[in-house]
Amino acid sequence: MMSTKSKVAIYCRLSEEDRNKQSETDDSNSIQNQKSMLLQYSLEQGWEVAGIYSDDDYAGADRRRPEFNRLLADAREHKFDIILCKTQSRFTRELELVEKYIHGLFPIWGIRFISIVDNADTANKGNKKSRQINGLVNEWYLEDMSDNIKSVLTDRRKNGHHIGAFALYGYKKDPDIKGHLIIDEEAAQVVREVFTLFSQGYGKTAIARMLNDRGIPNPTEYKRIHGLRYQQPKRKNSTLWKYFAISDMLVNEIYIGNMVQGKYGSVSYKTKQNKPRPKNQWYIVEGTHEPIIDRGLWEKVQALIAQKAKPFTEGKIGLFARKARCMNCGYTMSSNKQRDGRRYLRCSNRHVAKDACIGSFISVPKLEQAAIEELNKLSAAYLNKDELEQNVVFNSDLRGNKETLQKEIAAYQKKILEYIKGIRELYLDKVKGVITEQDYMDLSKDFQEQKDRLEKLVADTRERLDVIERKIQAGDNRRQLIEQYTNLEHLDRETVEKLIDYILVGKKDPVTKEVPVEIHWNF
User: Fold this and answer.
1) Are 245 and 222 in contact (CB under 8 A)?
2) Which of 123, 161, 296, 340 is the most buried (most CB within 10 A)?
3) Cα gap 450→132, rounded to integer Å
């Protein structure tokens, strides 16, 4: 019987740090040289090359690498027998992915992983530990690099240097001084007009409509027109000025010469996801650049904003404030008081430009009545049956969160056991003389730190699990909960906050005269 050749997939990656190297000795890091090395190795081994997968300009922690993901998809379908890389770090720098694929899924899929320079080979069971250490070292590299970059950026923010990819609308980057902003007069004229109009009594929606009627591009479109590589949101009417663009502009201190940065912070060095930071953690440095808005106009506008921000309806927040949304465009509906004294909710987006929205509209009393009627129907349906689950599903999200947290704890505990085993094996290697005393001390210390970190994660996750358990237990008292809201005649803000997640309101049907209402409950 003739033996068939093993099929090999070659994976190459060229990262940004490689591109920025100037030394000629770094040519071996180029994609071309990686391919040449790996092709030669495959030829020497007598393997058939099934395909070459190559990612240019991607970091080793970037999970969105297109060729990397195509490689994984083809591996799952077993289009080849071997994955060959120059080093393990070219495949990934994340220990999590090393464990998931190299030590987990690849053996299940029947895929052998080899990296030439660091001698990683899953066919050799004896070097699994070295592959894990490689993965751990690469993980430390990522974390250290992230911390170093954050430290540099934080220092620049504290000193008032602008570090964003794009300047705020109204400014542009100074070509002569890095981190300094200069006024972009074309856009600055619009900024001054917005502040002036608001100070004269024009509303934010009215200002947006005036700018749109004159065909003035919004900040996103302005960047695109001027050739800036800005990621434009793919939303309906995304080139129009909106209420929130005006609202954000009017409170941004950068327009009075203060540098404001750090409003958002990254969740982790492993993801590009950001989350808002509290204002006391922002970096605000005064007088870093020329102001567009003078102090007098700024203070007048801030006073007007504070005055307009006072809650309506006898000093109380509106019944459906921040709860009612337009069914067509998703914008939060605003409250208006009509001549008859009643309050109405309308989608303000319809006023920013023609055809921007259908213009959802409903009176507050009518929406209140619709909510009460639906709540009473739910109450009656439940109270007439023995089992609430037949009609209303409570706590589904909480139970889903509970299951997720339980899985996380199990995963953390599994990793803890692996680190305990790793420390034990390191000790045996030290006793056998495989590694030196110093290597043992360094590696075991790192393993212990990772173990301690995971144990803290387990403790923190258990606390979150306890909170969810208490919520579920409280929610299981369902009959008493729903009986509190039976046969209501009126709603109050506390009840709306407790029961309603959000409400979608549509446009009145010209035939039936009915306004479509879709209520999303918290239970």
Assistant:
1) no
2) 161
3) 13
- Average the pLDDT over each of 13-17, 106-110, 252-256 and give the range with the smallest value: 13-17
Which contiguous run of DSSP H or E holds residue 346? strand 343-346
Encode 328-391 in three state secondary structure.
CCCCECEEEECCCCCEEEECHHHHCCCCCCCCCEEEHHHHHHHHHHHHHHHHHHHHCCCCHHHC
Task: Give pLDDT, residue 278.
Answer: 80
| Alpha helix ranges (H) inside 159-203 | 185-199
158-175 pLDDT tens trace: 777 887 778 899 999 888
User: Could you count the other beta carbons within 10 Å of the beta carbon of residue 39?
Assistant: 15
Helix (H, G, I), strand (E, B) or coil at 9: strand
**Segments of 174-327 assigned E as strands:** 181-183, 259-261, 264-266, 274-276, 283-285, 324-326
* Pairing mode of beta strands 171-173, 112-115: unpaired
CA distances from 48 to 51, 269, 384 (A): 9, 38, 71
Q: What are phi and psi of 345, to 5 degrees?
A: -110, 130
* Residue whose token pair is 């997640």: 501
- How many residues are recorded in the chain? 523
| Residue appearing with tokens 């209303």 | 392
Return the ∠ at Cα 92 (arms to 424 and 57), rounded to 5°.
Answer: 155
User: Max alpha carbon distance in the chain (Å)?
Assistant: 94
**What is the pTM assigned to this prediction?**
0.40
- Interatomic CA distance for residues 122 and 421, integer angstroms: 19
